[in-house]
Amino acid sequence: MSEAEGGRSAQLKHTGLRSGWTTGACATAATTAAYTALLTGDFPDPVTITLPKGQTPAFALAAEERGDAFAMAGVVKDAGDDPDVTHGALVRSTVRRLPPGSGVVFRAGPGVGTVTRPGLPLDVGEPAINPVPRQLMRDHVALVARSAGTEPDVEITISVDHGEEIARSTWNPRLGILGGLSILGTTGVVVPYSCSAWIDSIRRGVDVARAAGRTHVAGCTGSTSEKTVVREHGLPEDALLDMGDFAGAVLKYVRRHPVDRLTICGGFAKLSKLAAGHLDLHSARSQVDKGFLAELALRGGASKPLAAQVAAANTGLEALRLCEAAAIPLGDLVAAKARDEALRVLRGAPVTVDVICIDRAGTVVGRSSPA
After folding, report:
1. What keywords is this UniProt entry annotated with (predicted)?
2. I need a surface site. Which of 13, 45, 205, 322 has the fewest CB within 10 A?
3. Cβ burial, residue 147 (10 Å; 0-12/13-18/19+)
4. Of 341, 345, 338, nearest to 365 (Cα)?
5. Kind and range of the H or E element at 63?
6. Dist CA 232 CA 356 (whole Å)
7. Residue 18 has pLDDT above 90, yes or no
8. Is residue 95 a contact partner of residue 39, using CB atoms and an 8 Å limit?
């Protein structure tokens, strides 16, 4: 169980879904318990921390160890009802005394990554422990030190059991964070299905690309579209953004942090949603509008009977195939409209946009000119 008080996570109003706790919150709890044990000899279990918005969750300890010059405590992460790859991971903090005046020093233990590329909110060579979790740990260490009448001069080493293996399922390798996971969280709370970690990874991907001097990046809905973009434009890995369904997240961040050119590449059906004005392309939050496709087909020269067939099609792909058979460039029309919607969201930012639509095999079925 990752956090105490009966293992209860925070409850989301109205949804019935449990929220959970970030790796940063777990690392803070483990650090607070370890430092308390280092100073007093006793591990507080459960250990209570205060999050940036005032919540005070209590975490049960899953591991503890104490030696002459160190103490270690571990907390199992509970992501609540969010499908988080780090759910169930054991986050450990080992705290050691340092000479007076040293302050708080952070280290990456096994399973926590190290930053190897510029563009992230941490310097190259630093452990991948983000600024907010660092500040949370500093604040809690200072409180523990104050209660013991001492100064918080300590080395904090954060590790995650099996973290290097788990990190292969995250953006970290592409972002140049090597050796394990990042310790994340700005509020300490994981909101189920908010996909905040994914959106944060998109933003960091843009930052890393810009820091590497990339002037052309691509927002891709999956691995097949990534391969298509590499084939079409020869882009390097650090210029590829795993956009998934979050077209809006890419466009809004690039609006604030422009690059010269943005290519959007994805399946025809998904990008037809962007063309229709949807910025979240997930099937639970937007649907393929066959009536919209029928209108585009009419503009492209389709007969009214063909447009009626498009409107009645079972899937977007069927609508595309009907138009292809009649030499109506529905794929190009969708790509052009998706590009125009992207430009609308960019609001005049100095970014040239083009769109590539593919089918499930990765064949290009539509493209726009850059604009």
Report:
1. Cobalamin biosynthesis, Methyltransferase, S-adenosyl-L-methionine, Transferase
2. 13
3. exposed
4. 338
5. strand 63-66
6. 10
7. no
8. no
Contact 133/24 with Cβ under 8 angstroms? yes
Q: Which domains does the chain have, with CATH numbers?
A: 20-190 (3.30.2110.10), 196-367 (no CATH)
E strand or H helix that includes residue 291: helix 290-299
| Helical ranges in the chain per DSSP H | 23-40, 131-147, 163-167, 172-175, 196-211, 223-233, 247-256, 268-275, 290-299, 304-311, 316-325, 330-346
Q: Which pLDDT tens digit goes with each residue over 164-215?
A: 999 998 889 989 999 999 999 888 888 776 687 788 889 999 999 999 999 9
Closest by CA to 334, choosing from 261, 237, 268, 287, is: 268
Check: CB of residue 142 under 8 Å from CB of residue 93: no
Please name the residue that has the structure tokens 């979790």: 133
- Asked whether 352 and 371 are in contact (CB, 8 A), the reply is yes
pTM: 0.77
Encoded tokens for 177? 């964070």
Beta-bridge partners for 219: 241, 264
